[in-house]
Write a structure and sequence with these properties.
It is a single chain. The two termini are about 35 Å apart. Helix content is about 80%, strand content about 0%. The relative contact order is 0.15. It contains 16 helices and no strands. The protein is globular, with a radius of gyration of 21 Å. InterPro entries: MFS (IPR011701), MFS_trans_sf (IPR036259), Sugar_transport-like (IPR052528). One of its GO terms (cellular component) is plasma membrane.
Length: about 425
Amino acid sequence: MPTYKPHARSHGRLDGQTRLLLAVNGLFVTAGALSGTFLGVYIWKASKNFELLGWFTLLHHLSMALTFWIAGYAVKRGRKSLVLRLGIGISALFYALVLALGTQSIPYIWILGIVQGVASGMFWLAFNVIYFEVTDADNRDRYNGLAGVIGALAGMAAPWFSGFLISRMAAEKGYRIIFMASLGIFVAGVLMTFLLRNRRTLGEYDWSFPARIWRVPETPWRSVLGALTVQGVRESVFGLMIGLLVYIQTGSELRLGNYTLITSAVSFLGFYAVGRWLKPARRVGGMLAGAIVMTAVILPFFFGVSYATMLVFGIGTSLTFPLYAIPMTSTVFDLIGRNEDSARKRVEYVVVRELALNAGRMLGMAVFIGTVRWSKAPLVLNVLMLVTGSAPLFSWMLMKRILRVPAKKAYARSRRRLQKMPDRV
């Protein structure tokens, strides 16, 4: 089993393992885009209940967070590839359960939310650790740009095909076909993971690390984790609402597929351009520009939610989201990798990162559930979207100092303070 060693400089190039990881990610994202876009619609059509969808999503995020923390032990013990396969395999199991239950899924919605959360937690934990190992500070922005391009291509083709198929099939037949297709793609993804090298991770898993890191004074990780938590608030609310609102406005899966096709095409251009143009020195301005536009495009909803305003929002967000997302992701992983001691703790740092994101996602979904229980009036939902949708501005405010200060210096200060903390809380 190869042992992880700090990278020789890649000078921006991607090697075979990096490209293979891109392919695994592409299969996972494609399977999710094929069915995930319409999963909320499928549940909505069976229940007509916003709150139920909120609970499904909340359970997903809760089980995902617990899975990150628990599965971190297996990843630290050198079982990254196994955990990655289990994540993809359990995703396949999720769609097999949806196929088996069909329209009777609603009474078992809590089980489905937990299963999907466990699958996502396993996949993204192992994926992010491997991503850290096969990339470095020189090629991380390029990798993230290419990953975004692949995600955008999957988002263009898969949902449009799904929407077209569902609209042409009677009853639930179209949904069953796309769920079966997702299951098959996940199986292909499992097979491809056998080509990834499994680098050994040294040391024992530090179960208390997520709690201890908050107690380190003046560490950059406080700001980073705060920014990630705020980011998670927006992700959960918008991830649930946007596709559903498009469907409610149009009553057509095909129109939802067309909407996703258009926005993903714009996202493709955005990720391609930002991946080539954005350098570390430009991250501060790029992230701010992305955050401002992502917030501003919510304002048209106050003049009426329609397919046109949804398109304005979708195109504006898709074009500028890469400016926000690439600096966030690259900076966090640069901070992990600036020192060999930190790299040894890469599993724990990835767990901490994902716990912060999921804490924000759970908070956002709790706010969503409370809001729709109180009122479903358009003005109330618009205010909810504006408040949660302005999260990128707060993330930028928390990150701007770290984006400006070389991560190596910020990390050195943090490491000295972390070493003075007790081993256990």
